[in-house]
């Protein structure tokens, strides 16, 4: 069921309990987690945090803890499958689910006792009506009347009016109802998409309890920005939510200019910005940022010689000397930086890049640290999926979580460095995929498979990195191809996952169009294709459109997908 | 190449991959429970007196009714009485039909009110109107439905003189009328031994048996025949049973599963009695067929066949031997391992009765490999089935030879048996303690008492028996104490001696 009063039905309930927090591995989840942790700290709530990267870990974590805990909070996991079915909880166990995954499983929605969904009110959910998908048992009893169960025959029997006709009529009615139910559920479950960021939902909770702090607000901003960077929500939704957060920002950061000069070393200030969509540019050189930002790289077609030439022309048009552009942004001439945004935007317009400026937020820590929300997203995501092995599995998660705290600048910088490497790797992989024609049209979708032995291929065995790569590749491909039909196709991307086990990770993403609704049908399609071919697949990820697959089964799986979607 | 982890998980993942399917399966389980509840509810409803205002009668006709009666305006109860008692034949038919419609709607048929109209004798009269087959049929249907209610309702029909009228209608030239009469007589017979025997005394059986033919309404006939075999106190007259059995034996061979099911139920009623009643059934030679039907995949056949065979093995050793000779033992393991608790229980009950026989029969039971499923049932079966299995163990340890008891222990009976000492049911605990005593008696004969003591202790049995010394039930307490004192106090005494 949906929680209508987050404070009374959720927070007040768990505040006096021992709580198990199950947190998915994405930046929005981490941000939501930080907000909740801050609230818990302030109310001395006892909790245990368990990171979960997929369904397997979630199930294991639940089994391990179900005896000690009765209250479970799921962050960015759990909404889109029938939790009662897969976890089989005792009746006195309660699940609070704050998850942006859509569609929400209908059993979760209509369970009145154990599953409580924390969802932003006003989110468009389109849940089918109860009566359309569930039938009261009373209706069913009669229908299954003649189902044989071996009990003693009745000693007396009444003869009903037109018994047979009535019964077949009822049976037909039931069949029709079931067909309609299937159709309704099919429509409802067909597309995967994302709702309001979980960090924002948690921030709302803090706010209605008047416990919201500027730090929490920042985490909410980062959570939303993560959804935008990962392309999980529409532009429209992003702008709307930015508006919501902007009101909170001005409420929390209303100091006037004089006071800003007197900022102390440990104070922070959030500001709304109309800034450049250039990844990490304030911590990089402008040149490198231009080259490794998907938007500019795709639009300028930087993988080609002509593209490189266009970049030079673009820089010349702005009148920025190459030497300045290639040096660290921090060390660029102040005079150049002054009107930089305007200059870049003006030239970008001429080169067909009309959306280089975006609405976002920045944060100042103390005197000199300034970050854009997207900087934090890139850094945190990179830490989370770092492939440098150190310590137990949860190390990356903890590190990423820590980097979100103001006191951990070193971790954040470490993350920024990793993020730059990641963006470079993505860009290089995109370039090589396009130059060597690795993106193939399969009819209903585009397909690209990374080979073992390609540089950085290991990085892309991780879901978030692979998704990011897929999105960048598709953008670039759409800019590079002249085939109009291909421009409208979705993309499936595969990368080696575990060489020893012979598995690949596969992700499907929706078409890259201006008005994209960001809805993804690959989750269902993958399930069907796997079923029909008996492919050995593992649907472990919380996003249904990411699966693991036995390499040997790949071709029959793809064949099934093609015929399914044609 | 294998991919154990992924594959295994993908198997498990299917659980939520096909969510739709699984919720449906879940629901089916729930519905099954519900059917039982509903049946109970329905019976309750039948017993309940219905009081429905006349106003509510006129509205809410069933959808089918609406379709069929567009041309005829529904009659009020007053109009029905008037027309039925009147002399206008077409109005009589119209009114009888109206009454029949009210009585055959799905929800809350107003049986009492129709009876109170006093039209039953008149409806019975209509049964003999051979010139008007439609009227006969409508009246027969209406009376059938009245007779389907409580005993009181059935009595109203019988006292209206319906028995002879229906019996003579059995030989109506119109098949649908004789079928309706069979149905009505089934309802009357099903009311209890009194009306059953009233029917038998009115010689219902010969014309009924004459209707048994390859064409026609065999299902209804079989059901009515089974009702003539049904109920005790008293049992149906032996003469009637002898008349019915050959036909029922034939019907057991029919290919229609409902007919076979009802025939099996009939046999199960006939075997549910004293040994001489069982003997009549055994003498017909149908046991092999019953055993065969016990193995049927159809619940509606397997259940009554198992019931009937279960009844037979409650009889004499010879009767039990007849069942064994018919091949019951090889079929039982399947049923002991059946998913339905009711089947497990019934099968375990049969097994316990076979185990109560002479040691030759116990030996046959062992030879047919029944110890293993018995132990499994004790370990993991439904509780009601476990109780029966406990009885089987008790009977086997009582009547079996020392070798047979040893074989039982070697099959691993001790662990699940001792576990069941935690049951809440005192009777079961007593039976288990009794079995344990029997095991010790056998061990004593072999000089293996100490080994058995050790075995019981290793399996945490001593702990459980000791705990029973504080049991509320006096008999349980004494039985537990008895075992402890007899077999487990030696050590304690030695210990005490050491301490002194």
UniProtKB/TrEMBL annotation, chain A:
Residues 136-160 are annotated as: Disordered. It is found in: Nucleus. It comes from the Eukaryota. Residues 136-152 have a biased composition (Acidic residues). Keywords: Cell cycle, DNA replication, Nucleus. Its main location: nucleus. One of its GO terms (molecular function) is chromatin binding. GO terms for biological process: DNA replication initiation; double-strand break repair via break-induced replication; mitotic DNA replication preinitiation complex assembly. GO terms for cellular component: DNA replication preinitiation complex. Belongs to the CDC45 family. This is Cell division cycle 45. It comes from Pavo cristatus (Indian peafowl). The lineage of its organism: Eukaryota, Metazoa, Chordata, Craniata, Vertebrata.
Automatic annotation (TrEMBL), chain B:
The keyword Transport applies. One of its GO terms (cellular component) is cytoplasm. Pfam families: Arm, Arm_3, IBB. Residues 1-59 form the IBB domain. The keyword Ligase does not apply. One of its GO terms (molecular function) is nuclear import signal receptor activity. It comes from the Eukaryota. InterPro entries: ARM-like, ARM-type_fold, Arm_3, Armadillo, Importin-a_IBB, Importin-a_IBB_sf, Importin_alpha. ARM repeats lie at residues 118-161, 161-189, 285-327, 369-397. Keywords: Protein transport, Repeat, Transport. SMART domains: ARM. Belongs to the importin alpha family. This is Importin subunit alpha. It comes from Pavo cristatus.
